[in-house]
Every structure is written in C-alpha cells, then in structure tokens.
Write a structure and sequence with these properties.
Low-confidence stretches: none
Number of strands: 9
Number of helices: 7
Shape: globular
CATH superfamily: Ribokinase
Helix content: 25-40%
Largest sheet: 9 strands, mixed
Radius of gyration: 17 Å
CATH class: Alpha Beta
Order of helices and strands: EHEEHEHEHEHEEEHH
Strand content: 15-25%
CATH topology: UDP-N-acetylmuramoyl-L-alanine:D-glutamate ligase
Distance between the termini: 32 Å
CATH architecture: 3-Layer(aba) Sandwich
C-alpha cells in the first residue's frame, strides 16, 4: 500500500456500480454524493448503460476480470471506510468481490443497493441465486418496495440490516423502515414539507449518502437519518427528473 494515502485528510469511500450517461444514477451519481459529503470517492464500473433520465436502451456488463482487477488495484492503494454495491450482474459477482475485499481491505462497511431495473422500467436481469448465503456478509441492503418483493425478503427473518426505502410506500409516501436481525424496526418519516418531485437515481443517491455518512463515522441510525435529509433536498431542489446535489 502506498504511503501517499496518509496525506489525504478525507476518508475514502468506494462504489461498485454501473455507468449512467445522464449522471443521474450509478457511479456518477455516487461520486457526486461522495464529493458533497467531503469524501474521496472511488469507483469501479460494473456495466455500461444506454439511458437518459427517462429513456432506457440497453445494459452491457463489464468483463468480470476487469472489474476484479480494478477493485484489487484500488484496495492495494487505498483503504475505503465503506463500500457500496449498485448494479451487478449476479449475487455470485458480489461474492467474488467480497472475497477480494476480505483479502485486501481492513474491516469495512458493506452496503448493497439492489438495482434490479431502470427508472424507465426495464429489468436488468440480475441473477439473485445464492442471496441467502450473501446477505449475512453484508451490513445493509436498501431495496425499494418492488426490489424487496422481487428478492422475496422476510422482515421477520432478516440476516442483515434491511432499509426498505419509502419512495414507493403506498401507505405513507417517503416513509423508510430499517429492519434489523434482532427484530427491531426503526421508521424514518419524511420531514421536509416542501413539494418533492420524482427523481431518476434517487435510490442511488440515498444509498451513496448512507455509505458517505458511515465513512464519516456516524452510527447507522444517524447515518440513515442524515442521508434521508440529504435526499429530501435532492428531491425538492427542482421539478425535473435530474436532481441537484446540495449539501
């Protein structure tokens, strides 16, 4: 590991996710969020997509070995405080990354935002075989209602923290619920009274904010709360599908 990292005063945080040319989602949205939180953001690109904020064309996953080589090089040079997974081809792919992380990184907070479809509605065909084996190795996953159902998660038997995000909550819009393995539930209600607008990539931004706040040393409950306030500013900042990042 290079001693050059000692000169950086900001913590490092890493995203392993797809590329969205509109920069509303994926690694570009994550890096924007990291920068707003005064962090050193790193990124490994898992896929190229053809899309804008309201049109989706196609996804082409990056060669697996290239992804692993990029990840290995970064981990040999830097020690991220938190790592976020976004769009991935399969659960098995995350397992391979975790093996590498275990070999090269110090203990690190691990989050998966299970991106299973584009905002425009097209499914990414992510292979979730082996999910039950993977989840205990993660610290947090952040599915929305649709992803929660597709993954067939059981809130009464979760092997890691699960934050069910409330953007699609039909009962109380914007209410998120954190489920923990010990059976506890922590609700997070929307506090911002300004009008919120639908945003492309809001789930990416929310999960990126969470790992940012974890990297800054906040406890998970406070990290989720601060991140919720961040994404609320993102949702209320303008009326278009591409949002403004404002700290």
């Amino acid at each position: 590991m290079s001693n050059s990292i000692n000169v950086y005063k900001r913590p490092f945080v890493l995203t392993i996710a797809g590329f969205d040319p509109s920069a509303g989602a994926g690694v570009l949205a994550d890096i924007k969020t990291f920068e707003q939180h005064r962090l050193m953001g790193l990124a490994v690109q898992t896929a190229n997509t053809t899309q804008t904020e309201d049109v989706f064309g196609q996804v082409c996953f990056t060669d697996e070995q290239i992804v692993l080589d990029q990840l290995a090089l970064l981990l040999k040079q830097y020690q991220p405080k938190a790592i976020k997974f976004g769009l991935v081809p399969s659960v098995q792919f995350i397992e391979k990354c975790l093996k590498l992380i275990g070999e090269l990184a110090e203990p690190v907070f691990l989050l998966w935002d299970p991106v299973l479809s584009a905002s425009a509605g097209s499914a990414f065909q992510v292979d979730v075989t082996g999910l039950n084996k993977l989840l205990p190795k993660l610290d947090l996953i952040t599915p929305n209602t649709g992803e929660f159902e597709l993954l067939e998660l059981d809130v009464d038997n979760v092997p890691c923290d699960v934050l069910l995000t409330g953007g699609h909550n039909q009962v109380q819009k914007g209410k998120d619920i954190l489920y923990t393995p010990d059976g506890k539930q922590y609700p997070f209600n929307a506090l911002n009274k300004k009008q919120a607008f639908e945003k492309h990539g809001s789930g990416c931004v929310f999960s990126a904010a969470i790992v940012s706040n974890i990297a800054l040393g906040h406890h998970k409950i406070k990290a989720v709360l601060k991140s919720k306030r961040y994404v609320e500013r993102y949702l209320t900042g303008n009326s278009q599908l591409l949002g403004y990042h404002r700290f």
